[in-house]
Amino acid sequence: MPSDSSPPSRRGLIAFAWLWVGTPLAYGLYELVRKATQLFTG
Known about the structure:
Elements (H helix, E strand, L loop, with lengths): L10 H31 L1
């Protein structure tokens, strides 16, 4: 008798967590590069 007690897929939750962290991180890196170029190029 095969047991069907595998945990539910959490793919959506993982994708949401990556977006929750990745979006502000990407924005912060964008702003960092933008301001660093302004600082060094005048």
